[in-house]
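Quick one, T. Sequence first:
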Amino acid sequence: MAEDSTWPDGTLRADPDQKYNTNQFIFSSPMYAAEDANGTHADPMIVVRGLDKTYASGFRALKGIDLTVCRGEIFALLGPNGAGKTTLISIICGIVNPGHGSVTVDGHDIVREWRKTRSIIGLVPQELHTDAFETVWNTVRFSRGLFGKAPDDAHIEQVLKDLSLWDRRHNKVLTLSGGMKRRVMIAKALAHQPTVLFLDEPTAGVDVELRRDMWAMVRRLRESGVTIILTTHYIEEAEDMADRVGVIHKGELIVVEDKTTLMHKLGKKQLRLQLHEPVTVLPDALSGYKLELNGNGDELIYTYDTRGERTGITALLRDLSAAGIGFKDLSTRQDSLEQIFVDLVRERA
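Structure tokens:
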């Protein structure tokens, strides 16, 4: 019998000659098809209203959270340690009991219809929790059964191949590296073909190669209609991946905005002028512009608000010329999402 005519657990394939294209991503199945025929993100997938959570110790982890995550979008939830990110995710996933308020997932209440909501959610937690003495194949296959799904070994095979785990399917989990264990956690979360995927600090402690592979996978998932909510401390990843961004601080959701709109609203721009000759002191006539000089005195920095009707750049250049200060080059720089996040949290500190 050919080596590939059986599944890793020894059962025969229905068609031993059947081949699976390893370049075909698993999420092209109809279960992952976006239900919004217009390709828009107007259809709510997760709706949180007035959500509060106070633990037995008296610590109030969430304070009146209102949030809507749309079908097929990537939503990044940012916040410092202890802000409430994991508590919010854990409540939606059914791990932590909610306090006051309501949460629905695809129209189903997480309390009254908990079986349904849990069956359509996949979670990749921060911690690596899995059976260390089981093989990769068995632990992923078992995860599918926990959600009442019929065995689908072809799907499990493709999940493992897409996560570069197929060659290690017979290995016990305890023999894997930290990065490979993280891949196993992702495979477990995808085993039952969820339509909502939570990634809680998914790239913490993983190598660059896995990080790139993971984000390529996330993009393909989104393209096929899966709703993805991620938390990350790598804010440049949120800036690159997310459609919308939410910032949570001390249990309060302080902003939810389209990423581009947020950067336009809250981001500031800098005009940097490379001077012909260094200067030590700026003339009083330029004091109204709140200019900065670098340490060498050969670069002038002007920060302006992109929301203003006038940026003041034209007047600045005119006044520089009148003051006899010439420049040989100029450039502009926009605030990054990381700087906006830091500023928002600092304001609420």
